[in-house]
Amino acid sequence: MRRTSNETPLGQVIDKLMKAYRLDGKLKELDVLEAWPEMMGIAVANRTKELFIKNKVLHIHLDSSVMRDELAHGKQIIIQRVNEKAGFEMITDIWFS
């Protein structure tokens, strides 16, 4: 069966739908959050109890006050790693709890 000129590849249709419903950013956000252990290491990942992004702020809930203090000092490095992983400026700040 031959393609006609008005047919669009499925990948393009899916991309358009994702952008129309603003899901492309959410999927990228999930990719970044899933890569947390890879970006920060197993020790940090094991102490991380909650991790989410809201309004360009990465919220990190840790069960160790010592680790929270250490990570707070490296805040800019974490922001850089997250944004590099995302491929764009996904976050501008981090809140620890």
Explain what the structure shows.
With about 100 residues, the protein is an alpha+beta fold. The protein has a single domain, classed as GMP Synthetase, Chain A, domain 3 (2-Layer Sandwich). The chain has helices at about 10-20, 25-35, 35-40, 40-45, 65-75, 75-85, and strands spanning about 50-55, 55-60, 95. It has a 3-stranded mixed beta sheet with strand order 1-2-3. The longest helix is centred in the C-terminal third of the chain and has 12 residues, at about 75-85. It is elongated and about 65 Å long.
What are the salient characteristics of this protein?
97 residues; alpha+beta; GMP Synthetase, Chain A, domain 3; 3-stranded mixed sheet; 56% helix
Short description:
By secondary structure, the chain is of the alpha+beta class.
Question: Which helices and strands occur, and which strands form pairs?
Answer:
Blueprint: H1 10-20, H2 24-34, H3 36-40, H4 42-47, E1 48-54, E2 57-62, H5 65-73, H6 75-86, E3 93-96
CATH topology annotation: GMP Synthetase, Chain A, domain 3
Query: Strand order of the main beta sheet, please?
Result: 1-2-3
| Largest sheet report | 3 strands, mixed
The shape is: elongated
What is the C-alpha radius of gyration, as a whole number of Å?
18 Å
CATH top level label: Alpha Beta
- Total number of domains: 1
Strand content: 15-25%
Question: Mean pLDDT, rounded to whole units?
Answer: 89
Helix content: 55-70%
Please count the helical segments.
6
Q: Uncertain regions: pLDDT < 50 for 5+ in a row?
A: none
**What is the number of E strands?**
3
- H/E series, N to C? HHHHEEHHE
CATH architecture: 2-Layer Sandwich
Based on helices, strands and strand pairing, what is the structural class? Answer: alpha+beta
